[in-house]
Amino acid sequence: MKAMTNSTDSHAVTIEDGWLVRVTDLKQYAYCPRVVYYQYCLPGVHPITFKMQSGIEAQDRVEELEKRRSLREYGLEEGERHFNIALTSRRLGCTAQVDLVVAYGAGAERTLLPVDFKMSRHEPGRHFMLQLACYGIMLEEAWQAPAPEGVIYLIPVKRAVRVKLDKRLRRDAERIVAAIRAMVATEQMPPPTPQRSRCVDCEFRRFCNDTI
Ligand code: SF4
User: Fold this and answer.
1) Which residues line ligand 1 (CB under 6 A)?
2) Could you give the domains of the chain?
3) How many CB atoms lie within 10 A of CB 27?
4) Protein residue with least CA distance to atom 2, ligand 1
5) 203: CA distance to ligand 1 center in Å?
6) Distance 202 CA to ligand 1 centre (A)
7) How far, in Å, is the centroid of ligand 1 from the Cα of 102?
8) Which residues contact 182 (CB under 8 A, 6 or more apart)?
């Protein structure tokens, strides 16, 4: 199989080397599978845009504010906060960095709450929930404690949305990770998104000759 790069990595890797899906790819895949295909199978085509950069900076500011925020916003009285937790699951074939994990309860009652900060004002879509489900699955594996729920924190409106990480959401998240891995392994370009309005401002439009 031809070598491919993760566009933020400087070296080429292969599936055989243990290449892992980034959990953030799930959101892109839900938007249009081709975006993920281009990122991995056409190396070096995805610059960090201004919007992404400002999102990163806003996220840094939120982390500072978060340290002063009451956990009551997440429906908790107390807990330990852990920021920017790096996770890898060989079983799932995934890697991730979780913005915040709140661990609460002690001993057999210890429970984990992954929190994902988003630069969005709107009710979170399923793609955000799928990401959160991956965080929950990976945290449970790595930290050996249950993560029955997670939170999507909407930065612009300062709102915490609690999400149940139920069986169906977990199964769908695992299925999408497997689909991304299969797509990259076979280098099979997927069909374009059926929602062609998304193509208008897409930075990969120049590679898609069969859209608009
Ligand atoms: S132009 Fe359309 S089909 Fe092509 S990658 Fe962008 S959103 Fe997907």
Assistant:
1) 32, 34-35, 192-193, 198-199, 202, 204-205, 208, 211
2) 4-207 (3.90.320.10)
3) 17
4) 199
5) 8
6) 6
7) 37
8) none
Average pLDDT of the residues in 65-93: 87
pLDDT of residue 190: 93
Pocket residue to mutate for ligand 1, from 189, 208, 209, 212, most atoms within 8 A of Cβ: 208
Atom of ligand 1 nearest to the CA of 192: 3
User: How far away, in angstroms, is 128 Cα from ligand 1 center?
Assistant: 20
pTM over 0.70: yes
Given CA atoms 88, 93, 94, 95 in this order, what sign does their dihedral have? positive
Please give the C-alpha separations between residue 64 and each of 55, 58, 86, 100, in angstroms, as whole numbers: 15, 10, 19, 12
- Please state, in angstroms and rounded to a whole number, the distance separating the CA atoms of residues 84 and 104: 17
Q: What are the tens digits of pLDDT across the range 1-55?
A: 444 444 434 333 445 567 899 999 998 898 899 999 998 888 666 544 444 555 5
Give long-range contacts, CB 8 A cutoff, 24+ apart: 164-168. 165/132, 165/133, 165/136, 165/137
Interior CA angle at 113 toward 116 and 139, to 5°? Answer: 85
- pLDDT, residue 80, reads 94
Residue 68 C-alpha from the chain's centroid: 25
Q: How far apart are CA 81 and CA 1, in angstroms?
A: 42
